[in-house]
């Protein structure tokens, strides 16, 4: 077998050294009664050419990539510079594990350190961890973290937080005697409904979790909401589902967020049907001991030279076991590596320009689309690269017609927001040319005429 | 004199750049953000050119030991060879470019692929259903324990306690805790396995589940697994198996046939997906048919000839992450199983166990072996003998680096003081094993003759020994310029 | 600009150190009259996303890859294991140059040494060089080499040698007072016409160059021809255009070839519209000093450890200038690397199996095709993975019809062999499934019915 | 103690394998080869598994210095950064999978691409036509000299002699020789350029051509190029320019405008295609319109709206290689030009010259500079001062390795004894240049204080200094087991 580097002669010699006759003797510790004797009912093994053909077949069964798509809703199509693939595919990055042995893992560790710094710079917060699974679990971890810092029984989440994130938070906390409550969005702007927040915030709220740009693409101005939360001694958790927005919009640190977390997929990770993605988390320095996940830190070696290690592991499961700040062990290090390569390649100008083009193009698309009779803007106020339109014909019907023209117009909101059942969430990024936006506009026009 | 790669922030220079976008092709509107002030700069964010990006990361990469370059016997981590064709098939455009919110009709290939791996994992483990959603082993544990809690709640009482052997990996108690349970430790017996008497005593009506790792983290098979299951079930509990060590058993033992109610696997261990410097992995969870209703959403099911996502599952524990799991990891694991087939998978277990026993036999007598029960895929020595000379497991580990070898695991099992947990996996050649054995034997001699050499090791790495205590005492967790 | 790592401040500082005011001052040595002042009339620069789109467009303009193709004729479609791409794309292999400094090039050098050994093992000859440009120039170099060893005025080449190779040999020798003559192929077998060879061989022939399997796919049994050449004191040069055949057919050394050379494309190089490919050359030890191109050799370092260096460079242009054995400098090292990875991955079993499947499948196709009325086998005797069929309808017409069914049936011989104007050269390798062969057969059947 | 990677033949073990094909799917026939005995084995051919293949080559790769990891100022080789997106576009399936014998209708994309680069190279150089067939610079020289010979033959007399400056690269005389010419050397003058008087004297009616490199291998511009062309042309000869050093001139000087009849470029130098450890490259040849009929076949031309291959060219020198050149190299070079555009290319020359002069200025006075004419893209120092202490250029070079730097070129120009030919290229940062300068200055001090240190260098490489003399004396050119 191609992956086993022992010749029959090697095996013989090894068995002799061990002092048994055959390999099966080494499994003597498995009582016969419970040993699986038959062959597993698996398909016959595939050789490499067959394997490639099989997966090419599956890949071709997906037809999504043949469409011009305006889907966002938590996963964003951005350009990925060639160096990201080139560098991240190196065996030295793909095939080591967690850098438990720092002396032979300086590459991984220095990159985590750089990544942490980049996340701090982007979020405007003091410290960051090495990665979490993805955006939704990062939000759930933030809630657990907030509750450790402020042991209070209630958690508020904005209804404009990504629906799947809300569900995951709910899954995580439902066994922990915590209560989850939604804060409504303002019917006109789609932003946090401050009145509702005022009503619900109290001294038994550990944290208020909100997203900006929110699930509707609306850019929040969260300073006031954050003040309300702080006034009651709770923590403000800002979720960023579209990380490219950090290149242009005010960072969570600037409006007082205590914890910022979210999804880093936009930083150099292909859509990949939803994973692997990159959960990130940053917070104020004082919460360091409650931060979940790995953290790299700087230190010196025996000759006084700078080096990097995993640190503060007394927070972690392998030391603290049930008292750890999280159960996370394997994280998304390779995705963080890709993010670091992506961000260092784009630099501040490139990231800003990317964010700026998202802003411009999405607004261009919004304006064009809403100039069509039958298509109306659902919320007022600034958006980043997503927006909600209300359609005067059934969303499903429109969607089906557009699919026939090779277009996926957006994400229908009905499933998650029955109150927005006539609404579509449209995403436009720098990867959409004017031509393709115009094509969408024209196709929608046709459907409505 | 060897040059050290600076931090990117130290290479940065204003005006350098590595990337440009095409010019904006829509009419520009400068008033889009209303009262929001766009950020003017990102203080400290690095500006470098593309050649510098490439050198920076290439140079850094070369300072890593990895499976592609080095024997990497990190116990409990199954650092086996990661087949390159699996990377290739996982980069096919139909997979890479597909959006998780795409209409299901347009991503039938993806759904078929996930479904296929779910089914094959059932065959391999004897479990009745699988979810591939969890992002890693620990996430699988959490998911699995939530399922147990949901099932027991449905039976009327979630109960309070989870039993976990003292040899278990740290994620076990941590996951149980996040799931709202108190953890009680079961002591291992002299054979290094669960003490049945102790279990009988502790397995009360308060206990929701026992989390057992099999083979356990000593590399020893819990041969009484059947009886263990009986005890747990008799008292109304459920049996969770941490399958991180399935590499020892694949094709030899199917947990689902022997009373295991919930099992997680680590695709990034047994199924050869690369570890990526710490992740991503995937921690699929298998359950009995009784527990199927509690699986997290979405569940993929066949309906009118096509695959759809079922989210309407009232008993489900809910959603445990966004979208459909670490999909590309799933692709690679499926490729692995399809390549190996039944015979190949069995051979994996056989050679993994052969290699571990070869090492054990070759080092026994020189290094102390606290538990002498038969080893499966790994063996756990300790530094007990060397400690007489003041040499600890960490010194041995660091000295191995000088020999070009990655050290074993040392942080657990906690029941072996000064542990050296060695898992060679099946993808190491005899020459690699011999080089490791040879180095370990030399180091044992060096410990006798020149303990200082070990305590100061490594001598030939990119850096000398790093001060972890100082790092924790004065945390410097980001560059500040 | 993305590829220039100097900031404006860096440039200022450097100019100051140099002592000039502006960069232009450094070009003072170019007389003004001859300096190009205007901008070059090039298209405006493309950003990375635009560049990728542009080349995707060009790539998509090629439609060849949508066809099931039975083209060979000097370039062969074989399966390439994933490790070949994975490993050869490493920067450490792609971005160094010729290993002039052996101490920092041991990887490249050891691999060349392994490659040379593999070529020797495959050809059954004593020594091999590090690579030449491709098959045709390798054949031309072999002729020049033979002439240096045997300075005689005539060169014989088999007419069944690849037509382009014959043309290149002709181009190379026409300025050198050498005369090129063709040796006919046997009209029945397509092999070397021994009678013609006997007629033409003489003591003023430096070398006889032949190919096996020859351009018609026929496997030669060259021992007798070689004896004839040797009897007159000339050298026998065996050309291998389809290197995979070496996995199964008798090696050139076994039938007395003095020099073996040819095209290594089959060893892990994609078709790539004809290049970069891999010229290889091996010969008997006694001709070492006349071998063209780089050679790696084993030696010791100052501590007595084994290492590798480029050696015998007194044969080469940088030392010997006009007296060198060849003008070659840059060669095809990276292609040789790929061949080494390919061969070490396949091993003797894999290579033999690949060759064996080529043999079996091509013969299956031959038999099936020639069972169609109107399609006849042109030559008798064993073939490897190519064969010639004679068609009873015009070749071009058949070809056009098949193209409409998505098939490229083969290479029409008329252009190169007017005497075979009704003939088609068909190639079948391990990459052709039975299904696709049957599809060809069926399509041809339809055309003839 | 650092482990050394064995030869693959030493890892081999009977029965190991890394690859299988699908089972044969056609009826097997065991009698296909007639009287031919298929070979039973390939003696010594290695048998290893896939993990061993990957480790073997990955480990070996790490022992190389390369542009991706190291400053690589190998003079005359233009070791610039190789953009990664160019690798990506060159791997598009339409390029990789297309067969060179494909009907032209099905490969119009390829032909358009080749044609495009031909046209852009004309713009860049001022030549009137280009062929992209030659596989490397030397192959381009040969092709170019054949064109000259064919043209002169057509004029009535191919002539006998080719003049080449003594500073030229070795391929120049070698290529002229293979083309059937005798070579005469022109001595350089004190400025390091062609002595016009000498040229006037030697440029007889016997002389077919002068091969000039500009800037020459000293990095000095042949500023009298115009006058040189006049002299050559007046006597009925043709002017060949070796454009290997065009990196200094691009956007600043177009050879075609100034009397150059034939020019070759090195795509693997000026146009940033990777050197691949020695190749492949590409050596396109540009000619004046007068010489166009002599270009090698095939020539791509437009006919009835599509591109076709013209092979019916009676005056052509014929075919110089199979198929259409090193096509994928052509793809990468085109990508480079399209990315840079006119401004970018000019900037390349400017920064290349800036970097070289920065180094020159920083080392002048410490290392001897035989020719003090202004430098363009490279500067050629010598070991003259250090030789007083017995230190030669090779010792300096090997010591640079200890500093993590690739040595400069030493094998030529032959007119500088003990040459150190330094070409930094435009893709090096100031920090890299400073590190090199710093190392060179230190080495100069070391040469004074501790010459033995240099003579024994390198001290910190994968191997110590290798014995090249022994290698040539007792050639071991293959493994024999
Ligand atoms: C025995 C055991 N259980 C669980 C885990 C946790 O798995 P993961 O790191 O994928 O979360 C590990 C990981 O090392 C382990 O070794
Ligand atoms: C000045 C000069 N001319 C010609 C050549 C030959 O080019 P190639 O190596 O591509 O054949 C070189 C290569 O180093 C060179 O430096």
Give an account of the 3D structure.
The complex is a heterotetramer, with two copies of chain A (449 residues) and two copies of chain B (481 residues). With 449 residues, chain A is of the alpha/beta class. Chain A is 36% helix and 14% strand. In chain B, the strands form three sheets. Chain B has a seven-stranded mixed β-sheet, with helices on both faces. Chain B is 36% helix and 10% strand. The longest helix of chain B is centred in the C-terminal third of the chain and has 37 residues, at 327-363. Chains C and D meet through helix 1, helix 2, helix 3, helix 4 and helix 5 of C and helix 2, helix 3, helix 4, helix 5 and helix 6 of D. Bound molecules: pyridoxal-5'-phosphate (2 copies). Residues 76-77, 136-138, 169, 171, 213, 217, 242, 244, 266, 281, 283 of chain B line the site of one pyridoxal-5'-phosphate (PLP). One pyridoxal-5'-phosphate (PLP) is lined by residues 76-77, 136-138, 169, 171, 213, 217, 242, 244, 266, 281, 283 of chain B.
